[in-house]
């Protein structure tokens, strides 16, 4: 922890030092990949020192990183990008921004990805329909926010936001320390599991290859995700990855070597943000068409779209999470396929 940086931005305001927490270098690299940005300069210093928690110095109603998870941030991107483009007369530099603060619901503060070091803060006022460069560096913006909106006396703080599929709070008093969860806490596969993993991966691939032995593929290009990466997927998409979906992602989620097409969202060239918004937009309100079978609180994951209108998905929070469902967005019909995820994959390979 860089105490001198925190003391500089705190400017004598009260905070709880033992709750201040930043991101590691590896986590920052993952965030860069997740949001397609290069984290440098003052913004990187902030992320390293207090990106997860400011110990009460900055509240969630000022820095959205402390209360929005990836899916929430991506939804915000999607909702504001069109507004920024329209207000700026389609200056496409506003298509690539990183929103980090929303104050009083209508004041949006962001960094432009093209700016060197992501240092200068921009302000979009929804009320006035104006975008402007504040002229403040990222650090000076924080200082201004802290002077104007932070507490100057000791407070009782309640337990932090935690990286779970659904956050929970343990109430201690009236205040909350917000900790950002752009990424879950990291985990890794130990070296002792490598041989076992490779053997299981080969067995999994062999089971699929024998379905269509004449199909062209490159076995050397078949790659999966690590368990920590799968955990990050759960965090971003707000789903539970278990059973057959987890096996698939672990053994060939990154590349199928040509066995499967880019109809599968895993191999599609859309960015991660585009994928999250696509799933939300496609499945939104579809449960109302079959209320006895689907519920808005369910966790849906569209893994394949065929010929634009046919969407195949899993309901990941159910006991039968392996079962594949179908939604035709043209006819607006929902149906159960009667097939498990693995059975569905095998059938796609067989007839492709």
Model description:
- With 352 residues, the chain is α+β, with helices and mostly antiparallel strands.
- The chain has 2 domains: 3-176, SMI1/KNR4-like (3-Layer(aba) Sandwich), CATH 3.40.1580; 191-351, SMI1/KNR4-like (3-Layer(aba) Sandwich), CATH 3.40.1580.
- It has 10 helices and 14 strands.
- Strands 3-4-5-6 form a 4-stranded antiparallel beta sheet.
- Helix 4 (70-87) crosses helix 9 (272-283) and helix 6 (194-209) crosses helix 8 (243-252).
- The longest helix is centred in the first third of the chain and has 18 residues, at 70-87.
- It is elongated and about 65 Å long.
- The model is unreliable at 158-189 (pLDDT under 50).
CATH architecture of the largest domain: 3-Layer(aba) Sandwich
The main β sheet shows up as: 4 strands, antiparallel
> CATH H level of the largest domain: which superfamily?
SMI1/KNR4-like
Strand-residue fraction? 15-25%
Looking at the structure, the CATH topology of the largest domain is SMI1/KNR4-like
Tell me the span between the first and last alpha carbons: 54 Å
Number of helices: 10
The coarse silhouette is elongated
What's the helix-strand series? HEHHEHEEEEHEEHEHHEHEEEEH
Q: Percent helix among the residues?
A: 25-40%
User: Which consecutive residue ranges, at least 5 long each, have pLDDT under 50?
Assistant: 158-189
Mean pLDDT: 79
């Amino acid at each position: 922890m860089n105490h001198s940086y925190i003391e500089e931005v705190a400017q004598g305001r009260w905070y709880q030092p033992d709750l201040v927490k930043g991101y590691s270098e590896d986590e920052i690299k993952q965030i860069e990949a997740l949001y397609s940005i290069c984290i440098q300069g003052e913004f990187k210093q902030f992320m390293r020192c207090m990106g997860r928690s400011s110990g009460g110095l900055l509240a969630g109603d000022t820095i959205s990183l402390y209360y929005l998870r990836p899916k929430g941030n991506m939804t915000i991107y999607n909702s504001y990008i069109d507004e920024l483009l329209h207000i700026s007369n389609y200056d496409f530099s506003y298509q690539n921004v990183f929103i980090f603060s929303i104050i009083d619901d209508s004041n949006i503060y962001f960094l432009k990805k093209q700016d060197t070091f992501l240092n200068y803060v921009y302000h979009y006022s929804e009320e006035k329909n104006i975008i402007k460069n504040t002229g403040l560096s990222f650090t000076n913006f924080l200082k201004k926010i802290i002077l104007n909106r932070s507490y100057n006396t000791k407070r009782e703080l309640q337990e932090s936001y935690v990286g779970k599929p659904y956050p929970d709070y343990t109430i201690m008093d009236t205040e909350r320390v917000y900790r950002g969860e752009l990424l879950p806490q990291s985990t890794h596969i130990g070296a002792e599991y490598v041989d076992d993993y490779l053997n299981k991966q080969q067995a999994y691939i062999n089971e699929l290859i024998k379905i269509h032995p004449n199909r062209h593929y490159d076995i050397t290009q078949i790659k999966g995700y690590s368990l920590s990466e799968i955990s990050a997927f759960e965090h971003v998409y707000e789903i539970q990855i278990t059973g057959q979906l987890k096996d698939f992602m672990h053994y060939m989620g990154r590349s199928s070597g040509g066995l499967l097409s880019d109809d599968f969202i895993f191999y599609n060239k859309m960015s991660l943000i585009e994928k999250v918004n696509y799933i939300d937009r496609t499945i939104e309100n579809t449960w109302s068409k079959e209320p006895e079978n689907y519920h808005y609180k369910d966790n849906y994951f569209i893994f394949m779209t065929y010929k634009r209108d046919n969407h195949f998905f899993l309901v990941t929070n159910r006991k039968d999470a392996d079962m594949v469902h179908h939604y035709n967005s043209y006819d607006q019909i929902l149906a159960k396929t009667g097939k498990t995820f693995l059975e569905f994959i095998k059938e796609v390979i067989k007839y492709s």
